[in-house]
Specification:
- 2 copies of one chain form a homodimer.
- Chain A has helices at about 15-20, 25-35, 40-45, 50-65, 80-85, 90-100, 155-160; strands spanning about 65-70, 75-80, 110-115, 120, 140, 165.
- In chain A, the strands form 2 sheets. Chain A has a 4-stranded antiparallel β-sheet, with no helix packed on it.
- Chain A has 7 helices and 6 strands; from the N terminus they run H-H-H-H-E-E-H-H-E-E-E-H-E.
- At the A-B interface, helix 1, helix 2 and helix 6 of A face helix 1, helix 2 and helix 6 of B.
- The structure holds a DNA duplex (30 and 30 nucleotides).
- Chains A, B: Keywords: DNA-binding, Transcription, Transcription regulation.
- Chains A, B: It comes from Nakamurella aerolata.
- Chains A, B: Pfam families: HxlR (PF01638).
DNA sequence: CCAAGCAGTCTGGTCACAAGACCGATACTG
DNA sequence: CAGTATCGGTCTTGTGACCAGACTGCTTGG
């Protein structure tokens, strides 16, 4: 969060965490990685972020051990590490908080524990087995009523069908 | 998050949530409110934030229904609404994520469910009753080993003793 | 009335971000 | 092999956010 004062602070790990994931776009990037997005160009198209900022964010995520970077042919692949995957409950928590307490004009995307086939509750827990499932065991489905105006990048298109988290998209 | 593009996006409540709480300092302010901090000057001293930014953040938090503002005598009091309190699990989640996955040089502050007298686990759940307690039912205690250099504002001093969340501090 | 404390607002300089041009490395194509 | 497309960046320029600190205006106590 390198903006002058970087939350240097009293015994607080919230400040530490925000130095890594508190910058603009970072959580959105991680959300997409949870969906299974792995390529620079896909993130670019899906997020409407500037190239420079995306490159910088990916750098700090790799540096801090939330993503790995690897070359496969002409593409570069970004993948979540264990630390990165561990942020999923937080991301999900923010999402369902927003859905519950903020006015919005679009219906919510749904998330389901695949092994129990039950939709997650507000805190990301599966009502059937009572546990908070790993990202890998979650499937996401588009909202029930589709929004009128929809994005048109490859990632958005792929996510119009049910999709297992972390599996490659598009 | 009013920086040009404000995450205007496909069916995603994460973007919506980040527009409200994704800006620099916002989550730190809410954390302090969870601790029970209620006055402008206390936040100012505890966070080392600029006055202008603090005023702006408090404005948007009040506007979005996370805090209420009221005058009591010469002071102004900020208090968490239901929506604001509902963010506690997310804040706690980020904190324990940071504690688990980020290197740091200081020991963690502890949080305990008062009715069960048990320390919360990573996901903010009480291992005894198995539920995620409300903020109001949580007590925070300073880290076991005190850090060498410590802050010296009223809030920091108050939090050197065990403290029930949401009860006034300092 | 005066002084003090609190909660802001104002100002000037610095830094981050947006948008888009440009660059280099790696394939594919003829 | 040269030419070209694609991908993943870097560079540049303008705009807006943030920081530090001075200043203001309201409320209360003496």
């Amino acid at each position: 969060m390198a903006l002058g004062n970087d939350y240097r602070e009293q015994n607080c790990f919230l400040a530490r965490a925000l130095e890594v994931v508190g910058e603009r776009w970072t959580l959105m990037i991680l959300r997409d990685c949870c969906y299974g997005v792995r390529h620079f160009s896909d993130l670019l198209a899906h997020l409407d972020i500037s190239r420079a900022v995306l490159a910088e964010r990916l750098d700090t995520l790799v540096d801090n051990g939330l993503l790995t970077r690897s070359r496969t042919g002409r593409q570069v692949e970004y993948q979540l590490t264990v630390a990165g995957k561990a942020l999923w409950p937080t991301i999900f928590g923010l999402m369902s908080w927003g859905q519950k307490y903020l006015p919005a004009d679009h219906p919510p995307r749904r998330f389901r524990h695949v092994t129990c086939a039950a939709d997650l509750d507000d805190s990301g827990r599966c009502p059937d087995c009572g546990r908070v499932p790993e990202v890998a065991d979650v499937e996401t489905r588009p909202a029930v009523r589709r929004r009128a105006i929809d994005r048109d990048d490859p990632v958005a298109k792929a996510l119009r069908e049910p999709h297992r988290m972390l599996t490659p998209v598009p």
